[in-house]
Amino acid sequence: MYILFSKYNRTRRPKFATCTSILEKEDSKNQASTRFISKSALYEEGLPHIASFADKYKQLSKIYKNAAIVPVSMENDRAFFPFIEGVAASTKIEAELHHLPDAVKKLNEFLDHVGDYHKEYVVEFEETEAFKEIFGRLDYVGAAAIGANIDEIPDNFFVTSEGLTLIDYEWVFSFPVPLRYIRFRSVYYFYVKHQSLIQRQSPEADNPNSDGGEAWFLELFGFDPEETAKWKQMEAQFQDFVHGPSHQHLYSTRYEQTIHDVNSFLNVVPDVAGEYNHLMNERQQLIDTLQLNHYIKHLWGLFKNRLHRSHK
């Protein structure tokens, strides 16, 4: 079994600190390999968080109308998920960023689609003790979802041959959470991820003292400054719950992408260059669909796999 890629969430409180890995298991008899995802706790106190995926899967399988949930299996205190072949739902939205109104329309359509829950899980918001422990006090009247996934960002959904599939669901709560807050998180973190592209198309693109087009972009989705302040305060409380008060600044970079430098490891393992050259022929198409990061991660996985074998 080979580790192709690992990501460590070390900035979280110990009870939420995790390692997410892409693993590959070879079947020498059939000359085939299978990939899957694993999540494990970095500390013993994080074991309940990993174990909670089983219940979260069951809950989300009931609430979503328009999305399948990637199944989870537990083994040796680790959560395992099948590796889903598909394209991130964010891809088609991001492809429209050159003309922002189209991207806004696509994002709204996506949020309407995934946020169309079975009606028995949509209730009036009620501020429970469990809610206050995580999100703080909230003076709000409006619709809420019970057992919802608050991390409904497009990156967490894949479009497959069988439809839309949710591939990551760490943050699911059994008490009512406002629907507007869930939608706000999706819009806000889309803005964070693509701030530079959005800012260039904002009315204050040339104003060095502007907020980068943040308020303007959020208002395109109906979030005025007063409502934005409410959800930002709630989000800060949530990040305090996950990371601790000294790491609240991390939430603004939570969804930024990292692009690995290809040349830095081609020099170390030169025989990967052949595969690299083959993949480079597909580069332009991937750029056109804004999947360059997926391409780099794939190549990075090839390198780590080859490096692991050479060490063995």
Please characterize this protein's 3D structure:
This protein has 312 residues and is of the alpha+beta class. The protein has three domains: 2-82; 87-253; 262-311, no CATH class. The protein is built from 13 helices and twelve strands. It has helices at residues 47-51, 53-63, 90-94, 100-114, 129-135, 179-193, 195-200, 214-219, 225-243, 262-266, 273-280, 283-288, 292-311; strands spanning 2-8, 18-27, 32-41, 68-69, 73-75, 78-82, 87-88, 122-124, 143-146, 157-160, 163-166, 176-178. It has a five-stranded antiparallel sheet with strand order 1-2-3-6-5. α6 (179-193) crosses α9 (225-243). The longest helix has 20 residues, at 292-311. The model is unreliable at 253-273 and 287-291 (pLDDT under 50).
Keywords:
single chain; 312 residues; alpha+beta; 3 domains; 4-stranded mixed β-sheet; 13 helices; 41% helix; 18% strand
Q: Kindly report the spatial arrangement of strands forming the biggest sheet.
A: 1-2-3-6-5
Give start-end ranges of low-pLDDT stretches: 253-273, 287-291
Helix/strand order: EEEHHEEEEHHEHEEEEHHHHHHHH
Total number of beta strands: 12
Helix tally equals 13
Strand content: 15-25%
Termini separation: 12 Å
- Please tell me the overall pLDDT: 84
Structural class: alpha+beta
What about the largest sheet?
Answer: 5 strands, antiparallel
Rg is 21 Å
Count of structural domains? 3
What is the overall shape? globular
Q: What share of residues is helical?
A: 40-55%
